[in-house]
Structure formats: structure tokens, C-alpha cells
Specification:
71% helix, mainly alpha, single chain, 2 strands, globular
């Protein structure tokens, strides 16, 4: 049975330290002030300097490539844990079976595990020029969950990020399983923060939740497909598909940095008015 101690914390510390040195000054520290000031679907602004973001994008990509073995190991441990947290014992069995298949087939996500639905989600997750305030808030909460030294606070922030990630339409369709998704995100946050490189991947949680919500609502028979076992299977799969795919994981972290930065700037402007 997988557990929180299955992944060593000794690998790739230099990648994590380099990422921290380059990311933190650019963000200027992600503060929590003003997080709850607006619920309107206003769009957060772009980076003032797109060249600046291009530079950071390369650093994120390099970090994710170097940390890929650790992230793949964390994904394998996470899948059954998320299955249990979201779907109970049966969800855990589903997650354990999926975790075993990840270990047997290293190229699973890059080849046979990819579908047209996965590719469609990738296209939808491509960075756009702006973010609704709700999405920017969710990304800022995830950034705080990745950076806080307090584990309990990190899990609470990740739970809040789940709710903020979901649109009103998502919340209506997935109402029965939102508490399950929150439990899954809390468990994933706890696991990822066990490893320095995994801690940075907490920033990918809003992307995992968005992909999970879209997949659940597109399944045949939705909303019946939004029951706990289906949610467990989908969230576990999307966690693996993000963490085990360096390109996808880098995109998720890029999106987080961009949106969290935009949200911080928007909050600063609001506070000064």
C-alpha cells in the first residue's frame, strides 16, 4: 500500500533551490491581502513585460524536467491515496489498480494513455492573455499553499483553491462531490509537500481540478457520472497525467505563476484606491 513516506526527499534539491531563487523575486512574495475582496468575473491583467515571463517560463521548464523522476514517483504514490480520499475504499482500489499500471508502463501518459479528450483539455489549458478573477484567486491560493511553512494552513488553502477554481456551473453540476474533491486536494497537498520539488507542484492543483471538473461533466450520463467513485477515478487520473507529463506540469505551474502575479497586482491596486 502506498503511503506518505514512500518518496525520498533527497533527490533534486538543487533544482528546487534554483527554482526558488528565480521565482520568488519575480513574484515579490505572494501575499494574502485582499484575496476575498471581489467575486466578479473581472479579468486579471497580463504581465507588464512578456519577455520577463518568457525568461521565467524557461526556468520553470528546466526545473520540471530535472524534477520529473521525483514528480513521477509522487504521482504513483498519490493516485491510490486520492482514490481513497475521494471515493472511499472502492476509490482506493481503483486508484491502486491505476497506480500499478503507471509503474508497469513508463510511457503510459505520453502514448497509449493519451486520448483526444486529453488533447482537448491541453488545448483549453493553454495560457490565455488574461484570467477571470475567480481563476486568478484560485491560483493565488494554490501559490500560498505551496509557500506557507504551516502544513495545516497549506491544506486549508488548497481546499479553498478547489472551490475557487470551480465556476458557478461547475459547482451546480458537481455539488455532490465537491467535498470529495476538497479531500482529494488536501491529501495531494500533504503528499507533495513531503518533498521539496513536490512542494512546488502544489501550484498545479487548480489545473488538476479544472481538468477533473471538465472530464466529469463530459462523461456519458453526467451528472450521474459525478458520483464519488467516478470523481475518484477521474481526479486520480488527472493528477497522474499532470504530474507525470513534464510539458503539462510546466504549463500548470506557468499558469499559476502568471495568474498569481496578476492577482497580487490587482489586489495591490485595489488596496491603494
Amino acid at each position: 500500500m502506498s503511503n506518505f513516506n514512500d518518496v525520498s526527499a533527497e533527490s533534486y534539491p538543487e533544482a528546487t533551490l534554483e527554482f526558488d531563487r528565480e521565482l520568488d523575486p519575480l513574484l515579490g512574495g505572494v501575499q494574502g491581502e485582499g484575496l476575498w475582496e471581489s467575486e466578479e468575473e473581472e479579468e486579471a491583467p497580463l504581465f507588464e513585460d512578456e519577455a520577463e515571463f518568457g525568461w521565467l517560463k524557461k526556468r520553470i521548464g528546466g526545473f520540471v524536467r530535472r524534477a520529473a523522476p521525483v514528480l513521477k514517483g509522487l504521482a504513483r504514490v498519490a493516485v491510490p491515496l486520492i482514490g481513497t480520499a475521494v471515493g472511499g475504499p472502492l476509490g482506493g482500489l481503483i486508484g491502486s489498480a491505476a497506480s500499478g499500471s503507471l509503474g508497469e508502463e513508463e510511457g503510459y501518459l505520453e502514448s497509449d494513455g493519451e486520448s483526444e479528450a486529453d488533447q482537448q483539455l491541453d488545448r483549453e489549458e493553454e495560457l490565455s492573455g488574461s484570467f477571470p478573477a475567480r481563476e486568478a484567486l484560485a491560483e493565488q491560493l494554490a501559490a500560498l499553499a505551496a509557500s506557507t511553512p504551516n502544513s495545516a494552513e497549506a491544506e486549508a488553502l488548497a481546499a479553498a483553491a478547489v472551490v475557487a477554481t470551480l465556476s458557478a456551473k461547475d459547482r451546480a453540476a458537481l455539488q455532490a462531490v465537491i467535498p470529495n474533491l476538497v479531500r482529494g486536494a488536501s491529501v495531494l497537498t500533504k503528499l507533495l509537500r513531503k518533498h521539496p520539488a513536490g512542494k512546488r507542484a502544489v501550484r498545479a492543483i487548480p489545473t488538476i481540478i479544472r481538468r477533473t471538473a471538465k472530464t466529469l461533466q463530459r462523461q456519458p450520463g453526467a451528472p450521474a457520472a459525478t458520483k464519488a467513485n467516478a470523481a475518484a477515478s477521474v481526479m486520480a487520473a488527472q493528477t497522474a497525467k499532470v504530474l507525470r507529463n513534464p510539458r503539462r506540469c510546466a504549463k500548470a505551474i506557468e499558469r499559476n505563476v502568471r495568474a498569481a502575479r496578476a492577482a497580487k497586482k490587482t489586489n495591490s491596486v485595489s488596496a491603494s484606491q
